[in-house]
Design goal:
It comes from Meloidogyne incognita. One of its GO terms (cellular component) is neuron projection. It is found in: Membrane. Keywords: G-protein coupled receptor, Membrane, Receptor, Transducer, Transmembrane, Transmembrane helix. This protein has one domain: Up-down Bundle (Rhopdopsin 7-helix transmembrane proteins). Helices cover 78% and strands 4% of the residues. A hairpin with a 6-residue loop joins strand 1 and strand 2. Helix 1 runs antiparallel to helix 2 and helix 2 packs antiparallel against helix 4. It is elongated and about 70 Å long.
Amino acid sequence: WNTRRDLTTCPFVMAVFASLYSSIILLGIIGNSCVIMAIARIKSLQTVPNMFIFSLSCSDILVCFISATITPIAAFKKDWIFGQFLCSFAPFVAGGSLCFSTFTLAAISVDRFLLILFPTRKAFSHTQALFIILVAFLLASGFSLPMLFMQKLKPVTHYCGRFCFEDWGEMIGIRRIYGTLLLTVQFIIPLALITFCYTAISFRLGKSVNLRTRKKCEWQMPISAQRNAATKRRQRT
């Protein structure tokens, strides 16, 4: 195999990336496991926002176990050793987890938006939160479903052995439509929604701070006037 210009074959580079990936995987598993156990065991932490965070932690652990372990091994090994099943399943999990995370982050922003801008409105219940999480999971799985059928093992001549690729064959037009749809649903819409919600929240909080400052000044003005009058009386005497 012609790998003379491939830095991933350098022992130093392999050691650095192996250390980085190992640290990320270990910290990801430990950190998210602590979050999951804390929310599961402590009843006071089982709030609606924490339910969303709980689901995010589960998704992150799944990525740490599957995607984060397979990617560096395949890159350094220069051969796909995991079989056709993981060739299809690993990208499906990676894409689904990414979609699920963005949908959940958007749901958290909407929950914060409604809570702060409409404080008298009834907040999301636990049942509604579970329903939102389920819908996010189903949508993420649906948008990532093509990965189960379009990932193929192919030999890469003169560079490596068999490798896992996304192969749409002659359906290039459908691939472009799918890519555009995925970009819109997975990135553009959640980003726009999150930006709108947190911008509105920041404006509302800014108005609240200004209102409190104004009221504080109004209360302090009569006191200052009384102090000035008392000072003048003392000066006269």
